[in-house]
Design a protein that fits this description.
The structure is a single chain. This protein has one domain: Nuclear Transport Factor 2, Chain: A. Strands 1, 2, 3, 4 and 5 form a five-stranded antiparallel sheet that branches. The longest helix is centred in the N-terminal third of the chain and has 28 residues. It is elongated and about 95 Å long. It is 31% helix and 30% strand. The protein has 166 residues and is of the alpha+beta class. It starts with 8 loop residues before the first helix and ends with a strand.
Length: 166
């Protein structure tokens, strides 16, 4: 009871084509197969991108709904205390100083921002309350400051630990 193996030219070409197919063409991630430090470099680049995206999400959420709208981005779930006068944050340039710790569990970003500081309207009249609700202020002036943000890596991704304007 022996099985006869059918070796033909066609079978030989099929097997040869499979063996010669590069790993990337077969859908295998090349970085996963390499053991030359590219896994660590890829993980670091992904962490940098995630932290930059989280910082941008913070700026968007702050400008849309103030400090209270950013609480879901923080590790403790509480809104940051940047000061009542801060009404808007805008990046001055796209570059930021980002440092990820060697262990990859925390990061610090320093972002140059233009900060709009608003002096609130005084009074309790109905018209003043309506103006406040519509986002009006007595005066607004801008200042250049640096947003310093501390990030922590959790099991489900990155969160903000702390932010401050300096």
């Amino acid at each position: 009871m022996s099985k006869a193996t059918d070796t033909s030219r066609r079978n030989f070409l099929k097997v040869s084509a499979l063996v010669a197919t590069p790993a990337a063409a077969m859908g295998l991630p090349v970085a996963a197969l390499a053991d030359d430090g590219s896994k660590a470099a890829l993980a670091r680049m992904q962490d940098e991108r995630a932290v930059e995206e989280l910082a941008q999400d913070f700026l968007r959420a702050f400008n849309a709904s103030g400090a209270k709208g950013t609480s879901k981005l923080f590790a403790n779930g509480k809104a940051p205390a940047l000061g009542e006068a801060v009404s808007k944050l805008a990046r001055e340039d796209s570059a930021s100083d980002l440092a990820i710790a060697e262990d990859g569990a925390s990061a610090t970003a320093r972002i140059a921002c233009k900060v709009d500081l608003a002096e609130q309207l005084e009074g309790s009249e109905t018209i003043v309350q309506m103006a406040r609700l519509q986002g009006n202020a007595a005066s607004i002036h801008s200042a250049s400051k640096t947003l310093v943000a501390q990030f922590a890596k959790r099991g489900d991704g990155w969160v903000i630990s702390e932010v401050a304007l300096v």
